[in-house]
C-alpha cells in the first residue's frame, strides 16, 4: 500500500546520477546520502503511523517546516531504519524547546553541535554501540540517528556553514553526534531513569556541545579524589565557554564511573563535585577579556573575589549531564569532556521516545 | 531505470513583507530599543541611540536590555514593548 507524499520530485537516470543530484541540489552536508525514494520513505511512514503532514516544528534559522514526511525523507538519506525515526523525532522536539535556543546553536561562532544521548531499552534493541569507540565510528544506529539530525538541520533548518551558520571551526560531530548509555556497566540507574522516566521507557537528551575532549582519569590506580582533580582540570580550561557557566556533558568510561561509584558518588553528586572543583584563580580569569561576555550576576561574582581566590565555572550542577558509555580501557579509564556553549543556550533537554503502538 | 527522488528541503511559511519606512517618518514618535549588549556592539549602539535622540527627538523611549546576548526575548515581553511604541530598533551584536 502506498502513502500519499506531498514533496516535490525529480527523476534521474540511475543510482549514480541520484547521488550526484543530491550534491548538485545541496541536499547533503558533504557526505554521500542514500537517495530518497518512495519505497524507503513510505516504509518509514507506514511504521510511524503518523499523518505525513503533521508538523513537528519549524527549524531555525531558515524556519523550514519539519513535517513527518520531510523528517522521513531526511532519515532515509541518513541511512535510518524505520525504528530509528522516533528517536530522531524525540530529539528534534527536545531541540525545539526555547532553553535549547536552536537558532543560536545553529548560527553561533562557537563550535557547539547537538549531541543526542540515547538511554533505555532501545539502546540494546537497536544495537547502539556502547563499547569501544562509543562516541566514534562503527555503528549504524549511532551514525544514522546523528546524521539524520544533521541533515534535518541542514535541509529543513538551512544550517549551512558561512551564511547563516558562523561556527568558526565546527568539529567532526557536526556530521553525526549520537551516543548511547551502557546500562550493563553503568553503576547507577540509567540516565533517563535519573530524569524521571521509567525503566521500561527510552528517552533522548540533547545538549549542544563542543567535540569530546579525551581526558585520562587514571581511574584504575587513582583515587576518586584524584579522578575529580583531573576532570576539574579538563573542565576549567581558560578557553572554554563554560567559564560563562551553562551546560556540559561528561561522558565517563565504565572504569571511571566504577571508581567514583565505589567511593559513594552518584550521577548527581559527581556533577556537583565537578561543578565545585572546576575553578580558576579570579585574577587569571579577569585578564581574559572573554569575561566581558559573562552575565552581570556572574561578573559581579567574579569581581567580588581577590586575584588568588578560586572562581567556580558553574554555580550549580543543573547543566552537567553525566553519561556512562565506552569500553573498559586500560590504566587510563578515560572520560570525554564535552564543553557547552556557556550561558547562551544548548542546555540539556530530554524527551521520551514515542514508538508507534503495535497493538 | 529512472529513479524518482523526493525533495528533503522543508517548506517555509509565507513571509509578510511590510513596506519600508524612512527614518524621518519617526520624528517625535515613540521608539523602542531591543539590544543584546554584545561587547562588540556597545560603542556603536551608544552612538546610534545618541544620534537618534538628537535627530528624531523621540516623544518616548522604551527599552528591553537583554542580559543574555544569545537567548531570544520572550514573546510577551516583546508584545508589551510593541504595544507602547511606534517602532522598535533591534540591535544584535555577535
Mind sketching the topology for me?
The complex is a heterodimer of chains A (359) and B (94).
Chain A (H helix, E strand, L loop, with lengths): L8 E4 L2 H10 L13 H11 L6 E5 L4 E4 H11 L6 H11 L6 H6 L5 E7 L2 H4 L14 H16 L22 E3 L10 H4 L8 E7 L3 E4 L7 H12 L12 E5 L1 H9 L4 H11 L1 E3 H6 L8 H8 L6 E3 L7 E5 L9 E6 L9 E4 L7
Parallel strand pairs in A: 4-5, 8-11
Antiparallel strand pairs in A: 2-3, 4-6, 6-13, 7-12, 8-12, 9-10
Helix pairs in contact in A: 2-3, 3-7, 4-7, 9-11
Chain B lengths: L2 E4 L23 E6 L6 H15 L3 E6 L9 H10 L2 E5 L3
Parallel strand pairs in B: 2-3, 2-4
Any descriptors?
heterodimer, A: 359 residues, alpha+beta, four-stranded mixed beta sheet, 13 strands, 33% helix, B: 94 residues, alpha/beta, three-stranded parallel beta sheet, 4 strands
Largest sheet of chain A: 4 strands, mixed
pLDDT < 50 stretches of chain A? none
- How many individual β-strands of chain B? 4
The general outline of chain A is globular
Please compute the radius of gyration of chain A using only Cα atoms.
21 Å
Distance between the termini of chain B: 50 Å
Task: State the helicity of chain B in percent bands.
Answer: 25-40%
- The amount of helix of chain A comes to 25-40%
From the N-terminal CA to the C-terminal CA of chain A, the straight-line distance is 20 Å
Which outline of chain B best applies?
elongated
What is the number of helical segments of chain A per DSSP (H or I, 4+ residues)?
A: 13
Q: How many independent structural domains of chain A? A: 1
Strand order in the sheet with the most strands of chain B? 3-2-4
Mean pLDDT of chain A: 96
| Helix vs. strand class of chain B | alpha/beta
The percent range for strand residues of chain A is 15-25%
Order of helices and strands of chain A: EHHEEHHHEHHEHEEHEHHEHHEEEE
Major sheet size, sense and barrel closure of chain B: 3 strands, parallel
Amino acid at each position: 500500500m502506498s502513502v500519499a507524499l506531498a514533496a516535490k520530485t525529480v527523476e534521474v537516470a540511475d543510482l549514480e546520477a541520484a547521488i550526484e543530484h543530491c550534491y548538485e541540489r545541496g541536499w547533503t552536508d558533504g557526505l554521500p546520502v542514500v537517495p530518497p525514494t518512495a519505497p524507503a520513505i513510505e516504509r518509514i511512514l507506514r511504521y510511524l503511523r503518523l499523518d505525513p503532514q503533521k508538523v513537528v516544528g519549524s527549524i531555525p534559522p531558515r524556519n523550514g517546516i519539519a513535517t513527518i514526511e520531510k523528517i522521513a525523507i531526511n532519515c532515509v538519506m541518513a541511512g535510518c531504519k524505520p525504528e530509528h525515526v522516533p528517536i530522531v523525532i524525540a530529539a528534534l522536539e527536545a531541540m525545539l524547546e526555547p532553553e535549547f535556543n536552536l537558532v543560536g546553536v545553529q548560527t553561533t561562532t562557537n563550535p557547539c553541535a547537538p549531541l543526542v544521548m540515547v538511554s533505555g531499552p532501545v539502546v540494546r534493541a537497536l544495537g547502539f554501540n556502547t563499547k569501544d569507540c562509543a562516541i566514534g565510528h562503527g555503528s549504524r544506529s549511532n551514525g544514522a540517528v546523528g546524521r539524520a539530525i544533521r541533515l534535518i538541520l541542514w535541509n529543513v533548518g538551512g544550517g549551512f556553514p558561512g551564511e547563516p551558520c558562523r561556527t568558526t571551526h565546527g568539529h567532526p560531530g557536526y556530521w553525526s553526534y549520537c551516543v548511547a548509555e551502557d546500562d550493563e556497566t553503568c553503576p547507577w540507574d540509567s540516565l533517563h531513569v535519573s530524569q524521571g522516566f521509567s525503566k521500561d521507557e527510552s528517552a533522548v537528551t540533547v545538549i549542544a556541545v563542543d567535540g569530546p575532549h579525551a581526558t585520562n582519569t587514571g581511574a584504575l590506580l587513582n583515587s576518586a579524589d584524584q579522578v575529580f582533580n583531573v576532570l576539574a582540570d579538563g573542565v576549567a580550561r581558560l578557553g572554554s565557554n563554560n567559564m560563562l557557566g551553562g551546560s556540559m556533558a561528561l561522558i565517563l568510561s565504565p572504569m571511571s564511573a566504577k571508581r567514583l561509584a565505589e567511593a559513594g558518588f552518584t550521577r548527581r553528586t559527581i556533577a556537583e563535585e565537578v561543578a565545585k572543583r572546576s575553578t580558576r584563580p579570579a585574577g587569571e580569569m579577569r585578564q581574559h577579556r572573554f569575561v566581558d561576555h559573562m552575565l552581570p550576576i556572574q561578573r559581579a561574582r567574579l569581581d567580588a573575589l581577590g586575584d588568588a581566590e578560586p572562581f567556580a565555572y558553574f554555580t550549580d550542577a543543573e547543566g552537567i549531564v553525566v553519561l556512562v558509555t565506552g569500553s573498559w580501557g586500560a590504566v587510563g579509564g578515560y572520560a570525554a569532556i564535552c564543553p557547552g556553549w556557556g550561558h547562551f543556550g544548548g542546555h540539556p533537554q530530554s524527551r521520551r521516545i514515542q514508538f508507534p503502538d503495535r497493538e | 531505470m529512472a529513479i524518482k527522488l523526493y525533495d528533503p528541503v522543508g517548506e517555509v511559511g509565507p513571509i509578510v513583507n511590510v513596506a519600508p519606512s524612512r527614518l524621518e517618518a519617526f520624528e517625535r514618535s515613540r521608539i523602542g530599543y531591543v539590544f543584546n549588549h554584545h561587547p562588540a556592539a556597545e560603542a556603536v549602539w551608544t552612538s546610534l541611540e545618541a544620534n537618534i535622540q538628537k535627530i528624531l527627538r523621540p516623544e518616548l523611549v522604551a527599552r528591553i536590555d537583554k542580559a543574555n546576548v544569545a537567548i531570544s526575548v520572550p514573546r510577551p515581553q516583546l508584545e508589551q514593548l510593541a504595544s507602547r511604541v511606534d517602532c522598535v530598533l533591534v540591535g544584535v551584536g555577535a
